[in-house]
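Support request, priority: normal
Reporter: lab tech (M.K.)
Component: structure prediction queue

Hi team, I submitted a job for Ketoreductase (KR) domain-containing protein from Penicillium coprophilum yesterday, and the status page still shows it as pending. I've pasted the exact input below so you can check whether something in the sequence is tripping the parser. The sequence length should be 342 residues. Please let me know if I need to resubmit or if it's stuck on your end.
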Amino acid sequence: MVSLLDVQSSNAQIANTLPAGLVAVFVGATNGIGEAALKEFARSSRSPRLYFIGRSQEAAARITAECRQLNPEGEFIFIKADVSLIRNVDAVCREIQSKEKSINILFLSCGTIRSGEDTSEGLHVLPAIGYYARTRFITNLLPNIKQATSLRRVVSVLAGGHEGPIDETDFQAKNMSVLSLRGHLVSMTDLALETLAEQAPEVTFVNDYPGAVKTGIGREANTFLTWFMGIVLMIIGPFIYIPIRESGERHLFFATSAKYPPRVRLDAAEVSDGVPLSEGVEIASGTDGKVGSGVYSIHWSGEHAGPRVVKLLAGLREQGMAQKVWQHTIGEFDRISGSADV
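Reply from support: The job had stalled in the queue. We restarted it manually and it finished. Here are the results:
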């Protein structure tokens, strides 16, 4: 486990070890983990330019004011959008790309627990936000991330360590229980990130499980199971919740620490792999079980998901599942937008 003290020590070095003017995009940052991570980034970096995407203009005004207090030299740009729709994702990406040549960090925490309904684009709403929209943001913005001359990183807040079987007859998980759906989507995410890492080995990709954190996602429950889970968390939550500030600090660590280097490390004088490690903190193992291999599935503690996940993913790769997942994903993008690209 990476201790909170080690996390805080690393974050305190961001301003001195990473360049000023880092550009980051936070998707799903008008509450919960995304908001907490955004604020920690504002608090810890020099003159950052931070884009954050969400649905609430009112929350955005509050967050912008709070970030400006934390860092008067930073720029904080809100883009209002419903990212359950791929066309909206494309529009947001075009807006950002019209202003930015390079991006250092793409942080994805958008999500919902709504299930059993489709978006107007024909995607099951839960994976539409938790998988398809996130993957579309990455594919669209990856050229900009590759252009960065310092840190290059993608962080997806999902459920690293909770991978499960993939049902290739139901990629959208329209006929799955919520419990089965999680493992299915987490494994799809890992394999999609591995595919993207082949295209951009100089970029780090992280799929993390945040642990139990009190956020506003429960308000969207629309099934008995998700409603019941919300009631249970109301009762036991105070005993198990990770404080929201600590969650923000840990996610900033995931986004900036050299514990998670890319598969291919470029000239250290040109591109940073992240904040240097403190004594006792080691480089993480990737989804293939190899140290520093560029794609990481990690627990809330910052450590590798473990041998069970490595074995499960190896079996899926042997089945050709990575190619099947990617072909399906690109096929859905092409169906919706008429193109696999933005």
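The longest strand covers residues 49-54. The two ends are 39 Å apart (CA to CA). Let us know if anything else looks off. Ticket resolved.
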